[in-house]
Specification:
The chain is mainly α. The chain has 3 helices and 2 strands, in the order αβαβα. The protein has a two-stranded antiparallel sheet.
Amino acid sequence: MRTALFAELFALAQEELAYFKAPGWFAAVESLPLTGTQKLQRGALQSLLHTLFEDGTLVDFRHGKSRRARAAG
């Protein structure tokens, strides 16, 4: 279910953004780690991303990020 949503988001990003600006990885999380002033906690975010990568939760769309893939699609 989420993979289909991520594919749709990636397709939209490919249409609207330059190929190098489209996200290559997608993951669904409950919330992002924030500081008391609502800024991202970059260290905690990095740890979260490592955990998501190790768990296999991240969905990889990097194969679609090339000039040829955008021109063909």
